[in-house]
């Protein structure tokens, strides 16, 4: 999507978790409140999901990525592969603790990153995510919130207009 000056408009995309889809609560929220946001469904393993993500974002820049859980891992991998294309990452309990198993070059990036992680998350280990986030992200804001893995309470009170 280009504007009148020929430059590309900022792109926003939401990447759902492993067992979710674009019909989940977060995806529906983004589709209803940010109609220009890309809200795809991903199926298959990480390799298949990343191929689809790369295809969706081909030729785009100024990308803001919101990744939830496994979607947070995908957003992190994409940003590590294409740091100049990604404007910002907003990661919700990201599954970056399994990035060592991903077929990608792991490197630190200076992209602004905001992470929200529940202190009662029983799916993704908070301590591992904190440690790895400090290692990977040079421009990091890490928010530990009183919530569970799905961030049910936190998600609905976040200032998404300001974040995006």
Our estimate of the beta-strand percent is 15-25%
What is the level 1 CATH name? Alpha Beta
The percent range for helix content is: 25-40%
Q: What separation lies between the terminal Cα atoms?
A: 18 Å
The averaged pLDDT comes out at 93
Low-confidence stretches: 1-7
Briefly note the CATH topology name.
Rossmann fold
**Biggest β-sheet: count, sense, barrel?**
5 strands, parallel
Which superfamily, in CATH terms, is the homologous superfamily?
Alpha/Beta hydrolase fold, catalytic domain
Overall geometry: globular
Explain what this protein looks like in three dimensions.
- By secondary structure, the chain is α/β, with parallel strands linked by helices.
- The protein has one domain: 3-Layer(aba) Sandwich (Rossmann fold).
- It is built from 6 helices and 5 strands.
- The protein has a 5-stranded parallel sheet, covered by helices on one side.
- The N terminus is likely disordered.
Secondary structure: elements and pairs:
Elements: E1 11-15, H1 25-33, H2 46-57, E2 63-68, H3 70-81, E3 86-92, E4 109-118, H4 126-136, E5 137-145, H5 152-157, H6 160-163
Parallel strand pairs: 1-2, 2-3, 3-4, 4-5
Features:
Rossmann fold; five-stranded parallel β-sheet
Task: Write a brief structural summary.
This protein has 164 residues and is an alpha/beta fold. The chain has six helices and five strands, in the order βααβαββαβαα.
């Amino acid at each position: 999507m280009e504007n009148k000056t020929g430059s590309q408009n900022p792109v926003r995309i939401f990447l759902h978790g492993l067992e979710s889809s674009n019909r989940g609560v977060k995806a529906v929220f983004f589709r209803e409140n940010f109609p220009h946001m890309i809200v795809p469904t991903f199926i298959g393993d990480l390799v298949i999901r990343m191929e689809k993500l790369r295809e969706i974002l081909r030729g785009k820049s100024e990308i803001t990525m919101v990744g939830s859980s496994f979607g947070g891992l995908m957003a992190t991998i994409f940003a590590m592969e294409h740091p100049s294309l990604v404007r910002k990452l907003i990661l919700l309990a990201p599954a970056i603790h399994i990035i060592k198993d991903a077929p990608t070059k792991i490197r630190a990036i200076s992209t602004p990153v905001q992470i929200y992680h529940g202190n009662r998350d029983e799916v993704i280990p908070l301590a591992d995510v904190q440690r790895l986030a400090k290692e990977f992200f040079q421009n990091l804001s890490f928010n530990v919130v009183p919530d569970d893995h799905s961030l049910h309470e936190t998600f609905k009170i976040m200032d998404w207009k300001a974040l995006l």
